[in-house]
């Protein structure tokens, strides 16, 4: 996982593996369809990531939760073709463990209810501490050094002393392992950072294609920023060369540009990103990847004013809104900024991309 394709091409060809390029539009659309199906079974859904969600079933005690979860899994597969596994437990941390067990042991019906497990102690003793949701690699090493190796060990630790030694988060994890809910469903919060980056389909040496790439990423990030009703106070641009060529010196650098007052205007983002890129660009290097990150994000309707600077004007807000709406209706890049470039020779190689059956009319299968 995570290995570059050229390093494992021979092994993949030996096993006749099917090689496909990434298709982010399709992934996002299928994720939205899955979440829509899940939302039909409970009003309380927290979308955690593109392929994971929490469902609050606390008000469904009159039902058999196992049977109801199997119905959710079957309906999701029937409507989307996406198989899902469901872990049931009284807390989020235990539900993550239940879901992990469901996947690893291939539980029939794709549902595992930790509350109905014959021996919870045995289950928790089989889960290594680094596999607990919220415990990273570095923290797990610290815990193992103190004799805490499994989920059962952590559950049996004193929550108050662990809070003093680590943090309140650790205390909540222990209580969650004991079946005490401490981490409830959360409303979807605006992202604190927005990142857009891609590797190039071929190495880039000149400044102009790098400027086009950074402008494209700034545009995408700006769309995400406005979609959550936010504005940003800074933009960071990063570039790097390839990691896997021993004949070339590795170069990776980033630069930050700040705005005197938060903005969601793509034109300002592109301009600032271009200036930042020029500070770190070094001629003669073969760049493999570029990207931008929006930082210091705040709600656009609740940001602090500035004595000498004005916020995005009403005309600018209306313009950005019109561009976003046109691209939603007619497809991405129906309207785009000239600084993004027209012919992207540097774009990611996607000649093996799967068809987007759900998002592009020309890819919809024809039944005769």
UniProtKB/TrEMBL annotation:
Its Gene Ontology biological processes? DNA repair; error-prone translesion synthesis; SOS response
**Alphabetically ordered keywords of this record:** DNA damage, DNA repair, Nucleotidyltransferase, SOS mutagenesis, SOS response, Transferase
Q: Which Pfam families match?
A: DUF4113 (PF13438), IMS (PF00817), IMS_C (PF11799), IMS_HHH (PF11798)
Entry annotated with the keyword DNA damage: yes
Molecular function (GO) terms for this protein are: damaged DNA binding; DNA-directed DNA polymerase activity
Matching InterPro entries, A to Z?
DNA/RNA_pol_sf, DNA_pol_Y-fam_little_finger, DNA_polymerase-Y, DUF4113, PolY_HhH_motif, Rev_trsase/Diguanyl_cyclase, UmuC
Question: Where is it found, in Gene Ontology cellular component terms?
Answer: cytosol
CDD domains in the record:
PolY_Pol_V_umuC
Q: Does the keyword Nucleotidyltransferase apply?
A: yes
Its Enzyme Commission number(s) read: 2.7.7.7
Where would I find the UmuC domain in this sequence? Answer: 1-136
Hey, which family's this protein in? Belongs to the DNA polymerase type-Y family.
Protein name (Swiss-Prot/TrEMBL): DNA polymerase IV
- UniProt organism field: Acaryochloris thomasi RCC1774
Name of the gene encoding the protein in the UniProt record: dinB_5
């Amino acid at each position: 996982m995570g290995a570059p394709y050229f390093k494992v091409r021979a092994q993949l060809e030996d096993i006749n593996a099917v090689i496909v390029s990434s298709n982010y539009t399709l992934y996002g659309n299928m994720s939205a369809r899955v979440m829509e199906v899940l939302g039909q079974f409970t009003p309380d859904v927290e979308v955690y990531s593109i392929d994971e969600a929490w469902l609050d079933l606390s008000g469904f005690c009159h039902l058999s939760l196992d049977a109801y979860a199997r119905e959710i899994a079957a309906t999701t597969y029937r409507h989307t073709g996406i198989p899902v596994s469901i872990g049931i437990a009284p807390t989020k941390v235990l539900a993550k463990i239940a879901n992990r067990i469901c996947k690893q042991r291939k539980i029939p019906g794709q549902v595992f209810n930790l509350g109905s497990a014959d021996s919870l102690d045995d289950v928790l003793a089989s889960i290594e501490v680094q596999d607990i949701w919220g415990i990273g690699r570095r923290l797990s090493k610290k815990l193992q050094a103190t004799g805490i190796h499994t989920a059962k060990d952590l559950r049996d630790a004193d929550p108050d002393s662990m809070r003093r030694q680590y943090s309140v988060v650790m205390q909540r994890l222990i209580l969650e392992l004991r079946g005490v809910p401490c981490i409830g469903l959360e409303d979807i919060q605006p992202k604190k950072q927005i990142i857009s980056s891609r590797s190039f389909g071929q190495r880039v040496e000149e400044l102009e294609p790098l400027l086009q790439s950074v402008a494209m990423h700034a545009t995408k990030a700006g769309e995400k920023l406005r979609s959550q009703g936010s504005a940003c106070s800074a933009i960071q641009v990063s570039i790097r060369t390839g990691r896997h060529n021993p004949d070339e010196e590795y170069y990776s650098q980033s630069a930050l540009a700040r705005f005197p007052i938060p903005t969601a205007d793509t034109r300002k983002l592109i301009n600032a990103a271009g200036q930042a890129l020029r500070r770190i660009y070094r001629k003669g290097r073969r760049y493999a990847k570029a990207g931008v990150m929006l930082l210091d994000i705040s709600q656009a309707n609740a940001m602090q004013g500035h004595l000498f600077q004005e916020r995005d004007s009403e005309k600018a807000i209306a313009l950005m809104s019109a561009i976003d709406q046109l691209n939603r209706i007619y497809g991405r890049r129906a309207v785009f900024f000239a600084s993004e470039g027209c012919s992207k020779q540097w774009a990611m190689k996607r000649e093996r991309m799967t068809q987007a059956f759900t998002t592009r009319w020309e890819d919809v299968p024809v039944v005769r």
